[in-house]
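User: Please check C-alpha coordinate order:
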Amino acid sequence: MPILQWMTRDRDLKAADTVPYRLLERDAALSVGEAASGNMLIQGDNLEALKSLLPYYRGQVKCIYIDPPYNTRSAFEHYDDSLEHSEWLAMIYPRLELLRDLLAEDGSIWVSIDDNEGHYLKVLMDEVFGRDNFIAEIIWQKRTSRENRAAIGSAHDTILAYARMPPKEWKPLRNKLPPKESGYSNPDKDPRGPWRSIPFSAQGHRPNQMYKIQPPVGEALDPPRGRCWGATEPVYLQYLADDMVYFPKGGAGRPRIKQFPSADDGLVPMTLWLAEDVGTTETAKREILGLFDDAIPFATPKPEKLIDRVIHIATNPGDLVLDSFLGSGTTAAVAHKMGRRWIGIEMGDHAVTHCAPRLRKVIEGEQGGISKTLGWQGGGGFDFYRLGDPVFDTDGTIAADIGFATLAAHIWFSETEVPSPAGGAAFGASPFLGAYDGAGLALLYNGILGDKRVSGGNVLTRTTLAMVRAAAGDFAGPITIYGEANRLGADTLKAERITFKQTPYDVRAR
Protein backbone atom coordinates (compact mmCIF):
# COMPACT_ATOMS: atom_id res chain seq x y z
CA MET A 1 0.00 0.00 0.00
CA PRO A 2 1.40 3.45 -0.86
CA ILE A 3 2.36 5.59 2.12
CA LEU A 4 2.66 9.33 2.55
CA GLN A 5 6.15 10.76 3.01
CA TRP A 6 7.03 14.08 4.64
CA MET A 7 10.11 15.70 6.13
CA THR A 8 9.79 14.52 9.74
CA ARG A 9 7.90 11.27 9.14
CA ASP A 10 10.41 8.94 10.82
CA ARG A 11 10.36 11.01 14.00
CA ASP A 12 6.59 11.50 13.93
CA LEU A 13 5.93 7.75 13.68
CA LYS A 14 7.46 7.41 17.17
CA ALA A 15 5.90 10.53 18.66
CA ALA A 16 3.03 8.74 20.39
CA ASP A 17 5.50 6.45 22.18
CA THR A 18 7.49 9.37 23.60
CA VAL A 19 4.51 11.23 25.05
CA PRO A 20 4.61 11.00 28.88
CA TYR A 21 1.75 9.57 30.89
CA ARG A 22 0.24 12.40 32.91
CA LEU A 23 -2.18 12.38 35.79
CA LEU A 24 -5.68 13.68 35.27
CA GLU A 25 -6.57 16.06 38.11
CA ARG A 26 -10.26 16.67 38.80
CA ASP A 27 -11.40 20.25 39.33
CA ALA A 28 -14.40 20.06 41.65
CA ALA A 29 -15.32 23.71 41.07
CA LEU A 30 -15.90 23.15 37.34
CA SER A 31 -17.48 19.71 37.65
CA VAL A 32 -21.26 19.68 37.40
CA GLY A 33 -24.13 17.38 38.30
CA GLU A 34 -23.95 13.65 38.94
CA ALA A 35 -20.46 12.71 40.14
CA ALA A 36 -20.64 9.13 38.81
CA SER A 37 -21.79 10.03 35.30
CA GLY A 38 -18.53 8.87 33.69
CA ASN A 39 -18.47 11.98 31.45
CA MET A 40 -15.14 13.79 31.29
CA LEU A 41 -14.20 17.26 30.08
CA ILE A 42 -10.41 17.52 29.93
CA GLN A 43 -8.43 20.72 29.45
CA GLY A 44 -4.96 20.22 28.03
CA ASP A 45 -2.93 19.15 25.04
CA ASN A 46 -4.95 16.38 23.41
CA LEU A 47 -1.90 14.24 22.58
CA GLU A 48 -0.95 14.02 26.26
CA ALA A 49 -4.59 13.67 27.32
CA LEU A 50 -5.16 10.76 24.92
CA LYS A 51 -2.05 9.03 26.29
CA SER A 52 -3.34 9.53 29.84
CA LEU A 53 -6.64 7.89 28.92
CA LEU A 54 -5.08 4.71 27.53
CA PRO A 55 -4.70 2.79 30.83
CA TYR A 56 -8.40 3.29 31.51
CA TYR A 57 -10.15 3.37 28.12
CA ARG A 58 -8.08 1.44 25.59
CA GLY A 59 -10.44 -0.37 23.23
CA GLN A 60 -13.58 1.03 24.89
CA VAL A 61 -14.61 4.04 22.77
CA LYS A 62 -17.48 3.20 20.42
CA CYS A 63 -17.42 6.40 18.37
CA ILE A 64 -14.74 9.02 17.84
CA TYR A 65 -15.64 12.26 16.11
CA ILE A 66 -12.96 14.92 15.63
CA ASP A 67 -12.87 18.23 13.82
CA PRO A 68 -9.13 19.04 13.72
CA PRO A 69 -7.69 22.31 12.38
CA TYR A 70 -8.07 22.38 8.61
CA ASN A 71 -4.70 24.03 7.91
CA THR A 72 -6.31 26.76 5.84
CA ARG A 73 -3.26 29.01 6.30
CA SER A 74 -5.25 31.65 8.14
CA ALA A 75 -5.34 32.43 11.84
CA PHE A 76 -8.64 31.98 13.68
CA GLU A 77 -9.79 33.59 16.89
CA HIS A 78 -9.36 30.52 19.09
CA TYR A 79 -6.44 28.65 17.53
CA ASP A 80 -3.75 28.88 14.89
CA ASP A 81 -4.89 27.07 11.77
CA SER A 82 -1.85 28.06 9.71
CA LEU A 83 0.49 25.11 10.23
CA GLU A 84 2.78 24.23 7.39
CA HIS A 85 1.80 21.06 5.58
CA SER A 86 4.51 18.86 7.12
CA GLU A 87 3.78 20.28 10.58
CA TRP A 88 0.09 19.48 10.15
CA LEU A 89 0.93 15.88 9.22
CA ALA A 90 3.29 15.68 12.21
CA MET A 91 0.48 16.96 14.43
CA ILE A 92 -2.26 14.61 13.23
CA TYR A 93 -0.39 11.30 12.83
CA PRO A 94 0.41 10.45 16.49
CA ARG A 95 -3.07 11.56 17.52
CA LEU A 96 -4.62 9.17 15.02
CA GLU A 97 -2.47 6.37 16.44
CA LEU A 98 -3.67 6.98 20.00
CA LEU A 99 -7.27 7.36 18.85
CA ARG A 100 -7.01 4.00 17.10
CA ASP A 101 -5.82 2.39 20.33
CA LEU A 102 -8.76 3.86 22.25
CA LEU A 103 -11.30 2.73 19.65
CA ALA A 104 -13.36 -0.37 20.40
CA GLU A 105 -13.17 -3.36 18.06
CA ASP A 106 -16.71 -2.58 16.89
CA GLY A 107 -16.13 1.18 16.94
CA SER A 108 -15.72 3.81 14.24
CA ILE A 109 -13.94 7.14 13.79
CA TRP A 110 -15.33 10.13 11.87
CA VAL A 111 -13.03 13.04 10.92
CA SER A 112 -14.22 16.35 9.48
CA ILE A 113 -11.84 18.01 7.03
CA ASP A 114 -11.81 20.20 3.93
CA ASP A 115 -9.82 19.95 0.71
CA ASN A 116 -6.68 21.63 2.09
CA GLU A 117 -5.56 18.41 3.81
CA GLY A 118 -8.42 15.98 3.14
CA HIS A 119 -6.68 13.92 0.47
CA TYR A 120 -3.52 13.59 2.55
CA LEU A 121 -5.58 12.68 5.60
CA LYS A 122 -7.23 9.87 3.62
CA VAL A 123 -3.81 8.34 2.88
CA LEU A 124 -2.75 8.67 6.55
CA MET A 125 -5.95 7.07 7.80
CA ASP A 126 -5.55 4.23 5.30
CA GLU A 127 -2.18 3.58 6.93
CA VAL A 128 -3.28 3.94 10.56
CA PHE A 129 -6.71 2.28 10.42
CA GLY A 130 -6.29 0.07 7.36
CA ARG A 131 -7.48 0.79 3.85
CA ASP A 132 -9.90 -2.15 4.04
CA ASN A 133 -11.57 -0.52 7.05
CA PHE A 134 -12.59 2.62 5.16
CA ILE A 135 -16.35 3.11 5.42
CA ALA A 136 -17.13 6.20 3.37
CA GLU A 137 -16.28 9.75 2.39
CA ILE A 138 -19.28 11.84 3.39
CA ILE A 139 -20.05 15.19 1.77
CA TRP A 140 -21.61 17.70 4.15
CA GLN A 141 -23.23 20.78 2.60
CA LYS A 142 -21.87 23.35 5.01
CA ARG A 143 -23.33 26.42 3.30
CA THR A 144 -26.15 27.37 0.98
CA SER A 145 -25.11 30.95 0.19
CA ARG A 146 -22.89 31.60 -2.80
CA GLU A 147 -19.24 32.55 -2.22
CA ASN A 148 -18.60 35.11 -4.96
CA ARG A 149 -15.00 35.91 -3.96
CA ALA A 150 -13.72 32.45 -4.86
CA ALA A 151 -12.92 31.05 -8.30
CA ILE A 152 -15.25 28.18 -7.41
CA GLY A 153 -17.20 28.61 -4.18
CA SER A 154 -16.72 26.00 -1.46
CA ALA A 155 -20.06 24.59 -0.36
CA HIS A 156 -19.05 21.41 1.45
CA ASP A 157 -16.70 19.78 3.91
CA THR A 158 -15.78 16.11 4.04
CA ILE A 159 -16.18 13.55 6.81
CA LEU A 160 -13.91 10.50 6.51
CA ALA A 161 -15.29 7.46 8.31
CA TYR A 162 -13.31 4.34 9.27
CA ALA A 163 -14.08 1.31 11.43
CA ARG A 164 -11.76 -0.98 13.37
CA MET A 165 -13.18 -3.86 11.30
CA PRO A 166 -14.02 -4.22 7.59
CA PRO A 167 -17.22 -2.34 6.66
CA LYS A 168 -19.08 -5.53 5.73
CA GLU A 169 -18.61 -6.70 9.34
CA TRP A 170 -19.36 -3.25 10.78
CA LYS A 171 -22.49 -2.74 8.65
CA PRO A 172 -24.81 -4.88 10.85
CA LEU A 173 -23.71 -2.81 13.86
CA ARG A 174 -24.58 0.61 12.44
CA ASN A 175 -28.01 2.15 12.84
CA LYS A 176 -30.15 3.30 9.95
CA LEU A 177 -31.55 6.80 9.86
CA PRO A 178 -35.14 7.35 10.99
CA PRO A 179 -37.61 7.20 8.08
CA LYS A 180 -38.66 10.57 6.80
CA GLU A 181 -42.23 11.55 7.51
CA SER A 182 -42.47 13.19 4.09
CA GLY A 183 -43.20 10.89 1.16
CA TYR A 184 -46.19 9.22 2.83
CA SER A 185 -49.68 9.85 1.48
CA ASN A 186 -52.99 8.05 1.21
CA PRO A 187 -54.39 8.53 -2.32
CA ASP A 188 -56.59 5.41 -2.14
CA LYS A 189 -57.98 6.17 1.35
CA ASP A 190 -56.42 3.02 2.78
CA PRO A 191 -57.92 2.52 6.28
CA ARG A 192 -54.44 1.64 7.57
CA GLY A 193 -53.32 5.22 6.98
CA PRO A 194 -50.65 6.97 4.87
CA TRP A 195 -48.14 4.86 2.94
CA ARG A 196 -45.39 5.15 0.36
CA SER A 197 -44.52 2.70 -2.39
CA ILE A 198 -41.29 0.85 -3.10
CA PRO A 199 -40.34 -1.00 -6.30
CA PHE A 200 -41.39 -4.64 -6.67
CA SER A 201 -38.32 -5.79 -8.59
CA ALA A 202 -34.85 -7.14 -7.83
CA GLN A 203 -31.51 -7.45 -9.57
CA GLY A 204 -30.69 -10.61 -11.46
CA HIS A 205 -32.64 -13.40 -13.16
CA ARG A 206 -34.36 -15.84 -10.82
CA PRO A 207 -36.52 -18.29 -12.80
CA ASN A 208 -39.22 -18.53 -10.10
CA GLN A 209 -39.53 -14.74 -10.09
CA MET A 210 -39.91 -14.34 -13.86
CA TYR A 211 -43.69 -14.41 -14.38
CA LYS A 212 -46.24 -12.04 -15.92
CA ILE A 213 -48.32 -9.64 -13.81
CA GLN A 214 -51.64 -8.30 -15.02
CA PRO A 215 -52.20 -4.65 -14.00
CA PRO A 216 -55.72 -3.19 -13.71
CA VAL A 217 -55.24 -1.39 -17.01
CA GLY A 218 -53.50 -2.65 -20.16
CA GLU A 219 -51.52 -5.73 -21.04
CA ALA A 220 -49.70 -8.16 -18.76
CA LEU A 221 -46.24 -6.99 -17.70
CA ASP A 222 -42.85 -8.67 -17.56
CA PRO A 223 -40.20 -7.61 -15.03
CA PRO A 224 -38.00 -4.65 -16.02
CA ARG A 225 -35.14 -5.48 -18.38
CA GLY A 226 -32.29 -7.21 -16.57
CA ARG A 227 -34.32 -7.69 -13.39
CA CYS A 228 -36.87 -10.07 -11.87
CA TRP A 229 -39.91 -9.48 -9.71
CA GLY A 230 -39.26 -8.82 -6.02
CA ALA A 231 -40.79 -12.13 -4.84
CA THR A 232 -42.22 -15.40 -6.13
CA GLU A 233 -45.73 -15.42 -7.62
CA PRO A 234 -47.45 -16.91 -4.51
CA VAL A 235 -45.97 -14.13 -2.38
CA TYR A 236 -47.08 -11.52 -4.93
CA LEU A 237 -50.61 -12.92 -4.94
CA GLN A 238 -50.71 -12.65 -1.14
CA TYR A 239 -49.57 -9.01 -1.39
CA LEU A 240 -52.38 -8.45 -3.88
CA ALA A 241 -54.95 -10.08 -1.59
CA ASP A 242 -53.76 -7.93 1.33
CA ASP A 243 -54.16 -4.73 -0.72
CA MET A 244 -50.40 -4.11 -0.54
CA VAL A 245 -49.88 -3.58 -4.30
CA TYR A 246 -50.03 -0.21 -6.02
CA PHE A 247 -50.05 0.28 -9.80
CA PRO A 248 -48.92 3.78 -10.90
CA LYS A 249 -49.73 5.48 -14.22
CA GLY A 250 -53.45 5.16 -13.69
CA GLY A 251 -53.24 1.44 -13.08
CA ALA A 252 -51.08 0.62 -16.11
CA GLY A 253 -47.63 0.87 -14.52
CA ARG A 254 -45.47 -1.86 -13.03
CA PRO A 255 -46.50 -2.89 -9.53
CA ARG A 256 -45.07 -1.28 -6.41
CA ILE A 257 -45.51 -2.40 -2.82
CA LYS A 258 -47.12 -0.25 -0.15
CA GLN A 259 -44.95 0.47 2.85
CA PHE A 260 -46.46 1.93 6.03
CA PRO A 261 -44.40 3.90 8.59
CA SER A 262 -44.72 1.12 11.17
CA ALA A 263 -42.98 -1.30 8.80
CA ASP A 264 -40.23 1.11 7.75
CA ASP A 265 -37.03 0.06 9.53
CA GLY A 266 -35.20 3.21 8.52
CA LEU A 267 -33.07 4.61 5.76
CA VAL A 268 -29.58 3.44 4.80
CA PRO A 269 -27.24 6.43 5.29
CA MET A 270 -26.00 7.99 2.06
CA THR A 271 -22.74 9.86 1.48
CA LEU A 272 -24.43 13.19 0.68
CA TRP A 273 -25.66 15.04 3.78
CA LEU A 274 -27.68 18.08 2.75
CA ALA A 275 -28.01 21.30 4.72
CA GLU A 276 -31.79 20.85 4.96
CA ASP A 277 -31.23 17.60 6.89
CA VAL A 278 -28.24 18.35 9.13
CA GLY A 279 -27.79 22.12 9.12
CA THR A 280 -24.94 24.40 8.05
CA THR A 281 -22.08 26.34 9.59
CA GLU A 282 -24.47 29.26 10.00
CA THR A 283 -26.88 26.98 11.85
CA ALA A 284 -24.08 26.09 14.26
CA LYS A 285 -23.14 29.74 14.81
CA ARG A 286 -26.74 30.59 15.67
CA GLU A 287 -26.84 27.70 18.13
CA ILE A 288 -23.73 28.97 19.91
CA LEU A 289 -24.93 32.59 19.93
CA GLY A 290 -28.21 31.35 21.38
CA LEU A 291 -26.27 30.02 24.35
CA PHE A 292 -23.78 32.88 24.79
CA ASP A 293 -24.62 36.42 23.74
CA ASP A 294 -20.98 37.50 23.70
CA ALA A 295 -19.54 34.32 22.13
CA ILE A 296 -17.26 34.46 19.11
CA PRO A 297 -18.03 31.22 17.27
CA PHE A 298 -15.34 29.15 15.60
CA ALA A 299 -14.97 29.71 11.86
CA THR A 300 -16.37 26.27 10.99
CA PRO A 301 -18.54 25.10 13.90
CA LYS A 302 -20.67 22.01 13.40
CA PRO A 303 -24.44 22.03 13.96
CA GLU A 304 -25.91 19.68 16.54
CA LYS A 305 -27.97 17.84 13.90
CA LEU A 306 -24.78 16.91 12.02
CA ILE A 307 -23.18 15.36 15.10
CA ASP A 308 -26.52 13.79 16.03
CA ARG A 309 -26.48 11.90 12.74
CA VAL A 310 -22.92 10.61 13.27
CA ILE A 311 -23.63 9.45 16.80
CA HIS A 312 -26.99 7.92 15.82
CA ILE A 313 -25.38 5.85 13.06
CA ALA A 314 -22.35 4.75 15.09
CA THR A 315 -23.62 4.19 18.65
CA ASN A 316 -26.41 3.10 20.95
CA PRO A 317 -27.46 4.63 24.30
CA GLY A 318 -24.80 4.13 26.96
CA ASP A 319 -21.92 3.85 24.47
CA LEU A 320 -18.79 5.99 24.91
CA VAL A 321 -18.15 8.89 22.50
CA LEU A 322 -14.82 10.77 22.31
CA ASP A 323 -13.90 14.12 20.74
CA SER A 324 -10.30 15.19 21.24
CA PHE A 325 -10.72 18.50 19.34
CA LEU A 326 -13.81 19.54 21.27
CA GLY A 327 -13.87 23.19 20.16
CA SER A 328 -17.08 24.75 21.43
CA GLY A 329 -18.31 21.48 22.96
CA THR A 330 -20.87 20.39 20.37
CA THR A 331 -19.98 16.68 20.34
CA ALA A 332 -20.18 16.40 24.12
CA ALA A 333 -23.45 18.36 24.22
CA VAL A 334 -25.08 16.16 21.58
CA ALA A 335 -23.77 12.90 23.06
CA HIS A 336 -25.11 13.97 26.48
CA LYS A 337 -28.58 14.73 25.11
CA MET A 338 -28.60 11.39 23.27
CA GLY A 339 -27.85 9.38 26.40
CA ARG A 340 -24.28 8.46 25.50
CA ARG A 341 -21.26 8.70 27.78
CA TRP A 342 -18.63 11.11 26.52
CA ILE A 343 -15.06 12.35 26.84
CA GLY A 344 -14.15 15.75 25.43
CA ILE A 345 -10.65 17.23 25.23
CA GLU A 346 -9.91 20.89 24.51
CA MET A 347 -6.60 22.67 24.93
CA GLY A 348 -7.52 26.35 25.03
CA ASP A 349 -9.08 28.59 27.66
CA HIS A 350 -12.47 28.08 26.05
CA ALA A 351 -12.54 24.65 27.73
CA VAL A 352 -13.42 26.80 30.74
CA THR A 353 -15.11 29.78 29.05
CA HIS A 354 -17.21 27.88 26.46
CA CYS A 355 -17.26 24.09 26.87
CA ALA A 356 -17.92 23.85 30.60
CA PRO A 357 -20.65 26.54 30.63
CA ARG A 358 -22.31 25.03 27.56
CA LEU A 359 -22.40 21.57 29.11
CA ARG A 360 -23.71 23.04 32.35
CA LYS A 361 -26.58 24.54 30.32
CA VAL A 362 -27.20 21.12 28.75
CA ILE A 363 -27.49 19.56 32.20
CA GLU A 364 -29.86 22.36 33.20
CA GLY A 365 -32.07 21.49 30.20
CA GLU A 366 -31.30 24.13 27.53
CA GLN A 367 -33.62 23.89 24.52
CA GLY A 368 -31.29 24.75 21.64
CA GLY A 369 -30.04 22.48 18.86
CA ILE A 370 -31.62 19.02 18.97
CA SER A 371 -33.12 19.40 22.46
CA LYS A 372 -36.75 19.83 21.41
CA THR A 373 -36.57 17.03 18.85
CA LEU A 374 -35.30 14.63 21.51
CA GLY A 375 -37.52 15.97 24.27
CA TRP A 376 -34.42 16.82 26.29
CA GLN A 377 -35.20 18.12 29.78
CA GLY A 378 -31.75 18.05 31.37
CA GLY A 379 -29.93 15.85 33.85
CA GLY A 380 -26.66 13.98 34.22
CA GLY A 381 -23.28 15.49 34.94
CA PHE A 382 -19.60 15.65 34.06
CA ASP A 383 -16.22 15.89 35.75
CA PHE A 384 -13.73 18.56 34.68
CA TYR A 385 -10.07 17.51 34.54
CA ARG A 386 -6.75 19.18 33.86
CA LEU A 387 -3.49 17.46 32.95
CA GLY A 388 -1.30 17.08 35.99
CA ASP A 389 2.24 15.88 36.58
CA PRO A 390 3.79 13.04 34.57
CA VAL A 391 3.69 9.59 36.16
CA PHE A 392 7.41 9.34 35.41
CA ASP A 393 10.24 11.81 35.87
CA THR A 394 12.42 12.91 32.96
CA ASP A 395 14.85 10.07 33.65
CA GLY A 396 12.02 7.51 33.44
CA THR A 397 11.62 6.79 37.16
CA ILE A 398 8.33 6.98 39.05
CA ALA A 399 7.48 10.46 40.27
CA ALA A 400 7.67 10.74 44.05
CA ASP A 401 4.05 11.77 44.62
CA ILE A 402 2.39 9.10 42.49
CA GLY A 403 -0.24 7.19 44.46
CA PHE A 404 -0.77 3.44 44.53
CA ALA A 405 -3.94 3.41 42.41
CA THR A 406 -2.33 5.52 39.66
CA LEU A 407 0.78 3.35 39.41
CA ALA A 408 -1.34 0.20 39.63
CA ALA A 409 -3.47 1.36 36.69
CA HIS A 410 -0.35 2.05 34.64
CA ILE A 411 1.28 -1.30 35.48
CA TRP A 412 -1.95 -3.17 34.73
CA PHE A 413 -2.17 -1.49 31.33
CA SER A 414 1.51 -2.00 30.47
CA GLU A 415 1.33 -5.71 31.37
CA THR A 416 -2.07 -6.58 29.89
CA GLU A 417 -2.63 -3.84 27.27
CA VAL A 418 -6.25 -3.64 28.40
CA PRO A 419 -7.89 -0.92 30.51
CA SER A 420 -7.95 -1.09 34.28
CA PRO A 421 -10.89 -2.93 35.85
CA ALA A 422 -13.66 -0.51 36.84
CA GLY A 423 -11.63 2.36 35.41
CA GLY A 424 -8.95 1.89 38.09
CA ALA A 425 -11.44 2.26 40.94
CA ALA A 426 -10.70 -1.30 42.07
CA PHE A 427 -7.07 -0.44 42.82
CA GLY A 428 -6.05 0.90 46.20
CA ALA A 429 -7.18 -1.60 48.81
CA SER A 430 -5.21 -4.70 47.87
CA PRO A 431 -1.73 -5.52 46.55
CA PHE A 432 -3.28 -8.10 44.21
CA LEU A 433 -4.46 -6.17 41.16
CA GLY A 434 -6.26 -9.06 39.52
CA ALA A 435 -5.80 -11.80 36.97
CA TYR A 436 -5.78 -11.57 33.20
CA ASP A 437 -5.41 -14.36 30.67
CA GLY A 438 -4.53 -16.88 33.39
CA ALA A 439 -1.84 -14.79 35.08
CA GLY A 440 -2.03 -12.65 38.22
CA LEU A 441 -0.54 -9.21 38.81
CA ALA A 442 0.45 -7.63 42.14
CA LEU A 443 2.09 -4.40 43.28
CA LEU A 444 3.99 -3.71 46.50
CA TYR A 445 4.17 0.06 46.60
CA ASN A 446 3.51 3.10 48.78
CA GLY A 447 2.73 1.09 51.89
CA ILE A 448 -0.17 -0.87 50.47
CA LEU A 449 0.47 -3.49 53.14
CA GLY A 450 0.74 -0.86 55.88
CA ASP A 451 4.54 -0.84 56.04
CA LYS A 452 6.62 1.66 54.02
CA ARG A 453 10.02 0.59 55.41
CA VAL A 454 12.55 -0.47 52.81
CA SER A 455 12.65 -3.87 54.40
CA GLY A 456 8.91 -3.92 54.97
CA GLY A 457 5.76 -3.91 52.91
CA ASN A 458 7.26 -2.79 49.60
CA VAL A 459 9.70 -5.69 49.52
CA LEU A 460 8.88 -9.24 48.39
CA THR A 461 9.48 -11.58 51.31
CA ARG A 462 7.76 -14.77 52.47
CA THR A 463 5.54 -12.60 54.68
CA THR A 464 4.49 -10.18 51.92
CA LEU A 465 4.08 -13.08 49.47
CA ALA A 466 1.68 -14.74 51.91
CA MET A 467 -0.27 -11.47 52.09
CA VAL A 468 -0.41 -11.26 48.29
CA ARG A 469 -1.62 -14.88 48.12
CA ALA A 470 -4.26 -14.14 50.73
CA ALA A 471 -5.42 -11.09 48.76
CA ALA A 472 -5.58 -13.21 45.59
CA GLY A 473 -8.17 -15.49 47.17
CA ASP A 474 -8.89 -18.57 45.05
CA PHE A 475 -6.48 -17.59 42.29
CA ALA A 476 -3.61 -20.10 42.24
CA GLY A 477 -1.90 -19.29 38.93
CA PRO A 478 1.41 -17.59 38.21
CA ILE A 479 1.79 -14.03 39.50
CA THR A 480 3.98 -11.15 38.39
CA ILE A 481 4.84 -9.02 41.44
CA TYR A 482 6.26 -5.51 41.29
CA GLY A 483 8.18 -4.25 44.32
CA GLU A 484 11.21 -2.28 45.51
CA ALA A 485 13.29 -5.37 46.18
CA ASN A 486 13.14 -9.17 46.34
CA ARG A 487 14.32 -11.27 49.28
CA LEU A 488 13.27 -14.65 47.87
CA GLY A 489 15.69 -17.02 46.14
CA ALA A 490 15.42 -18.17 42.55
CA ASP A 491 14.24 -21.66 43.59
CA THR A 492 11.47 -20.20 45.73
CA LEU A 493 10.31 -17.88 42.93
CA LYS A 494 10.21 -20.82 40.52
CA ALA A 495 8.35 -23.08 42.94
CA GLU A 496 5.82 -20.35 43.70
CA ARG A 497 5.53 -19.43 40.00
CA ILE A 498 6.43 -15.82 40.77
CA THR A 499 7.97 -13.36 38.32
CA PHE A 500 9.50 -10.43 40.19
CA LYS A 501 9.91 -6.99 38.61
CA GLN A 502 11.63 -4.17 40.43
CA THR A 503 10.17 -0.68 40.77
CA PRO A 504 10.98 1.74 39.36
CA TYR A 505 13.41 0.14 36.91
CA ASP A 506 11.14 -2.53 35.45
CA VAL A 507 8.10 -0.26 35.16
CA ARG A 508 7.77 0.68 31.55
CA ALA A 509 7.63 4.45 31.37
CA ARG A 510 6.37 4.42 27.78
